[in-house]
Amino acid sequence: MTRAAVLGSPIAHSLSPHLHRAAYEALGLYDWQYEAFECDEAGLPALLDGLGPGWAGLSLTMPLKRAVLPLLDTVSDLAVEVGGANTVILSEGGRHGENTDVYGIVQALTEAGVKPPHGATVLGGGATAASTLAALRELGLSRANLVVRDPARAGETAQVAERLGTALSVRTFDELESVLDVDLVVSTLPSGAADGFAGLLAGVPALFDVVYAPWPTRLASAVEAAGGTVVGGFPMLLHQAVRQVEMMTGRTDVPVEAMRAAGKAEIVRRAAPGS
Which residues are known catalytic residues? Predict the structure, then answer.
């Protein structure tokens, strides 16, 4: 049995098991197993040390993406730049960290027909915002606005921008209206946190909202009603998982549509009354 898992805290909500297991089934990898383990920063070193030779890789969610870096033997250049790894590949050569969130964001935007933006504003300053800045760089954007509640807490993301070579303008939410003359707004805020800005943001040409449930968010509905292009968080989650499956299994024929169907089915199941 070859094993893989997603780690994080809280982890019960994770869609990763449904996505990865759907891939294994479609690929005929019946001797592969994918699990979910509750794990915080304090428990991560012991968990990694306890993994045996049958392990292929790990998916990491919050709060582990930054905490894992000093525990790895090698780290990809992109994960170093972004300051976080959401993927650990396990082999005889040790633990290798990768970041597939950036790939997931680029694929989600491209799939939805969002053209490379001339300007972008990112709401929130956490790990997903950092990955978003890297994705924008891959799309050709070397300048972006970052809107946060407290600029003093945006230091890590500002350092990411510096490593990426991205010129970053940091603003507070009181100044949001001044940075909306852009092609794309990305909200990395938790569910409900952007609701109060729905009216202000309704006229933006394109919105990427990383929330995937409940969907649509009030913000997404406002932008869509005004004729803008809206991309939700599920496509990003899907495509980062596709890349993880490729890295862990070595397969290039990863069944994107089977994974998409499994993820959407689970979201629908969870939204049903009584679930």
Answer: 65
